[in-house]
Amino acid sequence: MFATNNFVDHLMKPTDAELEILHVLWANGPSTVRQVHESLSQSRDIGYTTALKLMQIMHEKGLLSRDAESKSHTYTAAVSEEDTQRGLVDRFVETAFKGSASKLVMQVLGQHKASQQELEEIKQLLNQLNNEHN
Amino acid sequence: MFATNNFVDHLMKPTDAELEILHVLWANGPSTVRQVHESLSQSRDIGYTTALKLMQIMHEKGLLSRDAESKSHTYTAAVSEEDTQRGLVDRFVETAFKGSASKLVMQVLGQHKASQQELEEIKQLLNQLNNEHN
DNA sequence: TTGCATCTACGAAATCATTCGTATATGTTT
DNA sequence: AAACATATACGAATGATTTCGTAGATGCAA
């Protein structure tokens, strides 16, 4: 067995609002506050300065990096989608399922429709894990 | 297709501290504040009146019911573990994975060790889902 | 019945997340 | 250069969560 991801412990837990912003940056790449605000506005009401403030705080926390060359700064996600989701899943499994990851999986699979292809991918991963066990 | 669980929308979202208490009650059944507090004390520092206050609030919210016959009240979880976890998963898939349940499953399976038996159970569920697709 | 242990009720502080208004800086256009 | 549009910085209100101290009720024991 190899050492696993202890670094997850040090990852900041983004709040819900912060996650919204990270999703925009992960999807669109480096963006200005205005661009992020416009994207967020499509799904909910949010003031421009609210988005700005959030991104400033996220920059302080180290969740975003920024380039301040021009008048309007350009922000970039400083944490990867994978690492962040890994950390979130860790916490979630712990708080909601008392550490039982397989219970979570069962719950999710039973509750959400997945496409044929998605099911295949999951099966494939399962077989792979099965082999590692032997 | 049948109507699915719209009632999930109306389920209160328990906070982290509230979830801790629900887990105790789900595991041990109806309990007094003292019993719950003793259980919680095993995993972390928490004052007696803190546990009491939390359970009073949860009672107000409808998360717990209580029997006030004797001097010390007996509390019972008023929401089921299944329903609660269903609601939590819904939110989590939405905020952390933008609705992609299969991405969540892949992330969890890749990240957490599951026993041979757990993997088998999951596979079985997958096959079942596969059949429903055809 | 007086006192002691234990309970509930409740107020309130501390922290955090979210929100936005206002002030000020910056750069562009006339 | 003056005016305008647009940017950042920042203070502060609000609401939710967690925490615990203190007061007062309750029941049992001496």
**How many independent structural domains of chain A?**
2
What is the CATH H-level superfamily of the largest domain in chain A? Winged helix-like DNA-binding domain superfamily/Winged helix DNA-binding domain
Q: The CATH topology of the largest domain in chain A, please? A: Arc Repressor Mutant, subunit A
Rg estimate of chain A, integer Å: 18 Å
Which descriptor suits the 3D outline of chain A?
elongated
The count of DSSP E runs of length 2 or more, i.e. the number of strands of chain A, is 2
Structural class of chain A: mainly alpha
Number of helices of chain A: 6
Helix content of chain A: 55-70%
CATH top level class name of the largest domain in chain A: Mainly Alpha
End-to-end distance of chain A, in Å?
13 Å
* CATH architecture type of the largest domain in chain A: Orthogonal Bundle
What are the low-pLDDT stretches of chain A, counting only 5+ consecutive residues below 50?
Answer: 1-9
Largest beta-sheet details of chain A: 2 strands, antiparallel
What average pLDDT do the residues of chain A reach? 89
**Residues in β-strands, percent of chain A:** 5-15%
- Biggest interface, chains and residue tallies: A-B, 40 and 41 residues
